Structure formats: C-alpha cells, structure tokens
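Researcher: Next sequence.
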Amino acid sequence: MNSISRRIFLTTGLASLMIASLRPFQAITQAAEKITPLKLTDEEWRKRLTKEQYRVLRKQGTERAFSSPLNNEKREGLYHCAGCDLPLFHSSTKYDSRTGWPSFYDVLTGSVKTKIDYLIGYPRIEYHCARCGGHQGHVFKDGPKPTGLRYCNNGVALTFKPVVS
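Model: Next structure:
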C-alpha cells in the first residue's frame, strides 16, 4: 500500500470512528431541537459580546488556558451561555480536569448540540449552545464517572449564577 492509499485508509477509518463515537451525543442534540433558536446579525452579536466572547462564541476561538476566573468557582449554581443566557451546566457536574479550562462531566438536558469539527486537522466533537449556536468547547471521553465525559469549556463563553439562599 503506498503512502497516499495508507493516508486515505487511516483518515477514512478515523472519520468512521468519530462518527460512531457521536452516537451517545445524538440524544443530547435531539433534546436541544426543542429550544427556539436565537438568531442575530453579526453586528448585533458584536454589540452584545465583548471582543473575546465574540472571538470564542461566534468564531470558534479558544481562550488561553488558566485565564478564566471560573476555573476557581466553587459555589453552587448554574453556568449559562454568555451569548444568550441559556443554562448549560449545574455546578455539581464541574470538576478540576487540570487542563486550564472549566470542565464538566455532564450538561443540562437539551442545552447543547454537537458536531464534528476538523479545525485542527483531525476530527473532534465540538459542542455549542442549543439556543444561539455559540461555540462552547469540545467534549472528550476522558472524564470522570458517571459519564466518562469531559466537556472542556471556554470560561469566557459562560456566566455563572450562584444559587441564592
């Protein structure tokens, strides 16, 4: 097998594995279909968001690791999309992944949609807000029990709302 055939074989095999690995996320995405989408013009998004939020949420950017104050947030509450305020995560699912980004092992039902992202040359599972489509981060299969997932989120894409007693 020559190097081009081998590359095509490996790329096709990797893509097939990634598509098969999306099956657990289909239920999450299907529940998200019930949310009414928020559609704004690019100009409206630029007015609504900071420059960094716009870069991450609308252009699929990534914030610098260890730059988010949400890494150290320990209070009980909900993490919302910074673009549209949809609740995405409960604080009870947050954990220290030691990656430099806020990480969660589960999402609130119906709050995110997933897709395969090839931005860095190989497939990853991107997740985004089900209401506004804002890029949140990527999900990996190296998280803790009970799900075994790590939703690695850009802190700038979130706001935190503590439980008020």
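Model: The first strand starts at residue 77 and ends at 81. Confidence is low (pLDDT under 50) at residues 8-19, 22-29.
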